[in-house]
Amino acid sequence: MEQELLNEMKQVFTEKFGDKETRSFFSPGRVNLIGEHTDYNGGHVFPCAISLGTYALVADRDDNKSRLYSMNLADKGVVEFEMSGLKYDKAKDWANYPMGVVSVLEKAGYKCSHGFDIVINGTLPGGSGLSSSASIEVLTAVILNDAFKFGLDMVELVKFSQQAENQFVGVNCGIMDQFAVGMGKKDCAILLDCNTLEYRYSKIALKDASIVITNTNKPHSLASSAYNVRRAQCEHALNELKEVKSELNALGELSNEDYNKIAGHISEQLERQRARHAVYENNRTLEAVEALENDDVIKFGKLMNESHFSLRDDYDVTGENLDTLAELAWAQEGVIGSRMTGAGFGGCTVSLVKNSAIAAFKENVGKAYTEKIGYAPSFYVASIADGTHRIK
Ligand code: GLA
Known about the structure:
Layout: H1 2-17, E1 23-32, E2 44-45, E3 47-60, E4 65-70, E5 78-82, H2 96-107, E6 116-122, H3 132-148, H4 154-169, H5 176-183, E7 188-193, E8 199-203, E9 209-215, H6 223-242, H7 256-262, H8 269-293, H9 297-313, H10 319-330, E10 335-341, E11 348-354, H11 358-373, E12 378-382, E13 389-391
Helix pairs in contact: 2-3, 2-4, 3-4, 3-5, 4-5, 6-8, 8-9, 10-11
The protein binds alpha-D-galactopyranose (GLA).
Alpha-D-galactopyranose (GLA) binds next to helix 5.
């Protein structure tokens, strides 16, 4: 399958850029199993990289120009840019992600001494909350590190990729997506402490069940402004808590009990709810990982459901499409747990479904969702993949 896709890319490469020697790279997308909107609150996340992602064929050029072509966005044609002094350029559309990585590396003293011809081909549904942008960012960082022998390790490349998104593209995301994409490991989820960046891998051996991703297919909404509002509300709540607990650095440091003791110091009811989600979700994530590691998949599933309730009721980032998918999933036989994944407002749910029940799950959820919402969802049975790498 992969080879077929690369062969097709090679043909397109030759059409666009001529017959040159190329190197191949793959960068996954990610699905977060639990720990949502906790990363920028200094809490834990539990994502994994998935086998859907972004491929690149890359050839060196001997000047300072890069030419990029995405097979998924053929209407945008070949996008060109210089490898230094880059500024965000709306007209360059998706190429701002790779441009951002070039730019933050240059600012940190890692200069690219020539450009590239690159063909990109993604298998991730764009705008679905499975981190297609982080996938391209880390892909770019890995291509540049490989070409120029910068000697940066993956965690450093992950941080530069997040910086590109924050400073160049202007989306104030946390580190989860880039970290999961870059540091992913086959058949493992990553328990990451976003406060310290300490992490460990946890084997996902579900025996008779699978991870099913369901895409709401909701047309793109203004998620990034609502995302930034949530961040600001949590920061404000944290600052009020610091007035009574000066040693507090992040909401992710609090137990539920400690939070409840001091929550009254947050003046706005809405901000109390936001902070409560951040605190409870972080502790829920730790409890869920422990359950999974003790082979208690049922408990893990219950905690996934609770995560969705909290994201719906306290954090208010689910909306009709995600709530419909989750409610339908909960009602199906063989569903161990189901919740929204990613930023929310649209995008995907993640469900643990018994293998014997997957066909009926797709059929029933697909039909009822379409009846209610007016268009169909899409389903992907995820396999957990390695992080961004050169394909040998
Ligand atoms: C988006 C962001 C992440 C994280 C999630 C919510 O995916 O990019 O940093 O905050 O939302 O958990």
